[in-house]
Specification:
By secondary structure, this protein is an alpha/beta fold. Helices cover 27% and strands 35% of the residues. The chain has helices spanning 38-47, 61-64, 67-73, 144-158, 177-183, 185-193; strands at residues 2-8, 13-20, 27-31, 50-55, 77-80, 84-85, 88-89, 91-92, 97-101, 104-110, 119-123, 126-130, 133-134, 137-138, 166-169, 175-176. The protein has a 6-stranded mixed sheet, covered by helices on one side. The protein is globular and about 50 Å long.
Length: 194
């Protein structure tokens, strides 16, 4: 498995292309296609990969606007907590579970708080967190209740992972579970109040 990072300068959102370069598989998936650049298409085509899946962490425009372009070129299965994203039917994911995409085991966790449909995906020792948690902060919430819900979900579903687990967020640089446990003031502030 290889992970390729792509930054959309439009709204500084992160998109990830994950490839299974096992010669017997040669498939790819994309997490949060905020913008589909020529580089992303070139990476899939030049690598000889078949795009079989798209993982949506949450249905905010800056994380899904490129989905329409992808669907004009490829026919991947789109996985999300919503039944439809950008007018495209999805395979609905509820709660926590596992699935197989591009020959890879993908775990998913429901982490409402930033949005009701927020999901975190885990492949190997890497978490793709969307806006749930970013280096040093958590996603915006619409009130104290939702902030508490988000922090509780982060503690239960993200901080329970091994300290070395890498966090690939929807915005900003990567982090680790240990780093967020030690330095994320949003979550530690909540934990000390609870």
């Amino acid at each position: 498995m290889k992970i390729y990072f792509h930054l959309s300068m439009d709204e500084f959102t992160n998109c990830y292309v994950i490839v299974n370069d096992n010669p017997d598989v040669m498939e790819a998936l994309i997490v949060d296609p905020g913008k589909v650049s020529p580089e992303i298409i070139k990476q899939i085509e030049d690598g000889g990969y078949k795009l079989t899946g798209v993982l949506i962490t949450h249905n905010h425009a800056n994380h899904v606007v490129g989905l329409t372009t992808l669907m004009k070129i490829y026919s991947p299965t789109v996985y999300a907590a919503e039944s439809e994203v950008k007018g495209i039917r999805t395979k609905i994911l509820r709660g926590d579970g596992k699935l197989s995409v591009a020959g890879l085991v993908v775990e998913y966790y429901s982490v409402p708080g930033h949005t009701a449909d927020s999901l975190v995906f885990k492949i190997g020792t890497v978490l793709f967190t969307g806006d749930t948690i970013t280096s040093g902060i958590i996603g915006e919430t619409s009130g104290l209740y939702f902030k508490q819900m988000l922090c509780a979900n982060i503690e239960k579903k993200i901080f329970s992972q091994t300290d070395e687990t890498v966090i690939m967020p929807g915005h900003g640089p990567p982090s680790t579970v240990l780093t967020e446990k030690q330095y994320n003031l949003d979550v530690s502030g909540y934990l000390h109040k609870a």
